[in-house]
Amino acid sequence: MSTTTSSRRRFSLEFLGVAPFIIFGLMFLVLPTLYLLGGAFIGRDGELTFDNILGLFTDQIMAAYWISIRIAGASSIIGALAGLAIALAIIRGRLPAPLRSAIMTFSGVASNFAGVPLAFAFIATLGRLGLVTIIAKTVFGLDLYRAGFNLLSFWGLTITYLYFQIPLMILIIAPAIDGLKKEWSEAAASLGAQPWQFWRYIGLPILWPSFLGTVSLLFANAFGAIATAYGLTGSSLNIVPILLYAQIRGDALQNPGLGAALALGMVVITAFANIIYLVISQRAERWMK
Questions:
Q1: Are 243 and 262 in contact (CB under 8 A)?
Q2: CA quadruple 192, 195, 200, 201: dihedral sign
Q3: Single pTM value for the model
């Protein structure tokens, strides 16, 4: 058998292995995006129109995009900082191996725990009659809601998102922290560098690309979340996923074309965030080799 024939057969087998992924991506990513792209330019009468795209620039929709970006940005930055601190503590802090294993296992579960169950858990914990709210009021004399806190608000939804943002950050940043070679810190110490100097000039600059890339991924993760937000706030908080749901399924606001335009805008923003993650992660991988 010739080398060319063997190479072709190997390529065919490799392509066959990734074929399910390609089919899955086409069915649930490419085709729906093309459908949204077409639907965004179709009016209620079935004619080609730009009214749906122009409708994105109305005050209500622009406000929805702005608050969604703020919530996604706040939860991603806070979640990334908290997750980085926890990951550094369990990996570089020489904590017992069973504790690290337990935290990583919990992070894997918590990063996928969202939707209505998460919304109910926070309502039962931080709602007006939640466990923490009652304890704070009866034991410490602190009325959270009279002090200005509201679970059905910007910061309430941001705190709820942190439940899955922080564990996701831990899972993603842990390999990058593991990639910090012990020899680097030993070499820095042998040259007289203090621990803070190692992190200032070596550790953090190496982790910085991974950190920025993960922030962009967390942003995309929070920006597209709907089940948790809808289960927690209903329609009281005007964010894009809830407004999109109202445009597609609502009785009063039903406008599939505008809903497709809203979804297309979300696709563009999340795709941009994911592209940033991919570009930055490739740069970070150079340090991990």
A1: yes
A2: positive
A3: 0.84
